[in-house]
Design brief:
six-stranded antiparallel beta sheet; single chain; 5 helices; alpha+beta; 41% helix
Length: 186
């Protein structure tokens, strides 16, 4: 009987140590991540501030989606979002982030919660495809025009990556569409 109690005690101690190790030891960081940025996140200083830096970046386009300005909160201003549209593409860039930078970006961008991460395949400027993740608004977003600062950051990002003026025009059209659709709601 005493032998069984000793064995039970030893098993209980081992189980307790395993439990403590799971709780106390730091969780491993996720691996490196290819993040497709568009809208205001495209701009270098915005990405640097939100992610704490990045390894490198390359221009890329997300085919089969369209850029819109929406919100999923009761907010006057919208943020860039993507919606499926087989005849469109969203200009942007892939930022290559460490696991720590990806976690910082999520925390500073409101993911999960405000945004959800979705897997995408983007086409780089050299024609190669890259498996990446990007953000899309959570919930049931509604149209809302962007703030001036959002438009300025998105426009600057397009310029930094050498996108043509036609992409600036599409950005302005998306903002106008959001303002018009929000106006129809009120």
């Amino acid at each position: 009987m005493a032998q069984k109690i000793k064995i039970a005690f030893i098993l209980l101690v081992l189980l307790s140590l395993v439990f403590l190790a799971v709780i106390v030891l730091p969780k491993p960081l996720p691996g490196p991540e290819a993040f497709f940025a568009y809208g205001a996140s495209l701009e270098f200083s915005t990405m640097r501030a939100r992610a704490g830096g990045f390894a490198n970046e390359t221009p890329a386009a997300l085919l089969g989606y369209r850029l819109v300005f929406q919100t999923n909160r009761h907010s006057e201003f919208g943020v860039a979002n993507i919606v499926p549209d087989e005849n469109s593409q969203v200009p942007g860039a892939v930022y290559f982030l460490s696991g720590e930078q990806a976690m910082a970006l999520d925390g500073n961008s409101g993911s999960p919660g405000f945004y959800r991460k979705i897997p995408v395949t983007v086409t780089a400027s050299n024609g190669s495809t890259i498996n990446a993740v990007t953000y899309a608004l959570s919930g049931s977003p509604t149209f809302a025009p962007p703030a001036l600062a959002t438009m300025q950051a998105a426009s600057k990002g397009l310029q930094q990556f050498g996108y043509a003026k036609s992409e600036q025009d599409k950005l302005a059209a998306a903002a106008a569409e959001a303002a018009q659709k929000k106006g129809n709601r009120n």
